[in-house]
Amino acid sequence: MKIYGYSDQGLPIEDIVPVELAEITLNATPDETRKIAAFLLSAADSMERMGDSYSHVHLADVQPEFEGSPHFTVFNSELSGGR
Question: 58 is in which domain, residue-wise?
Answer without folding.
Answer: 3-80
